[in-house]
Amino acid sequence: MKKLLLKPFRMLFAPLARMWKRLPKKTTVSVELGKDIPGKVVSTVSVEWAKHSEERTPRILSTVIAGVGKYVPENIISSEFIEERLALEEKCNARKGTIEAITGVKERRHISTGEFSSDMAFRASQRALEQAGISADEIDLIIFASASHDIAEPATANILQDKLEAWNAHAFDVKNACNSAVNALDIMDAYIKTGRCRVGLVAAGETLSQFINWDINTPEDLQLGLAGLTLGDGGGGVVLKASDDLERGIKASYFASEGSSWRVATVMGGGSRFPHDSSQMYFVSNSIQLAKLAIVNIPRAIKAVLQKTGWQAEDVTLVVPHQVTYQLIERISRISGIPFEKCMITVTKYGNTAAASIPIALAEAVETGRVKQGDKVLLVGGAAGWSTAVMALVL
Q1: pLDDT per residue as tens digits for the range 306-317
Q2: Of 269, 276, 326, 382, which residue has the fewest beta carbons closer than 10 angstroms?
């Protein structure tokens, strides 16, 4: 009786058992709940196996930049306008042209009402995908990497995925102040080189103008708030893909953190310490201390990366630094032994766009012909925290 009851089940599962025996050893069988996504239906059961036995041997891959894009809002805000709005000459005894003289920032872009961080990233990503010749449904992984974001939860990467209609992608955020995008590139490099991702998108979207403190009435207020007055809005996107061309791609990187300096530059509100205190929602910075940290840490990081790659300073076609101030970039290039003429400068017209500044500057360098495929590039970042980031790549 027992055998008779089991017979139908044996007949049902026998074909599956025979198929299982024929599969190669390295086989992945995945079962996922069926779901409807606009424009796509995900199958309920999928079985994957190696197409060729030689694919069992790990391939050496390179992470290559396939496309870059930038977006900045239309509203141009001059430093002269800000000085007049705040009456800095009357309140703080600051002469006209102080902001530009100290930082090199002549103007920056600010969002209009109804624009968000994801919008900055979305428009930049569209241009990067277009340049790469890649459609949104080919993206395996989206990393949104910014200091600002749309909402507390969920990750802004999900909102960006929705806007791009990149339904095949996994998505998450990376947040590390102004170094967020470089950290995300490093993470994407690991995903691609380990075979977990074929096509990836790193996108930054910053709406920093919302965190500027316009209540500056004393020289002391100006000292803490000056860096905030240089903040601008914008987005950058970088499409990366796996490649067999080992001459190109990400070659080396250096990352370091000095958490004891986290108080040097902050936006204190929005977290568990000050969840609802609107007075803590502004960017404040000890610019002098921040500059000291940059001068000490970034040149040694550049030296370490050059040693890893075997490059000399003269081999580097372009340095794409985080855009804090014109003067700081000039000083670090001099200490590092890299001619200032090799630095891509956008801080004068876009201000400090935090994590978006390096992708924006890289996209503009490609657009204007400053760099081309095969050129050696250094991405150089410094961020509140303190955080150091330098990456060497061949376009």
Answers
A1: 999 999 999 999
A2: 276
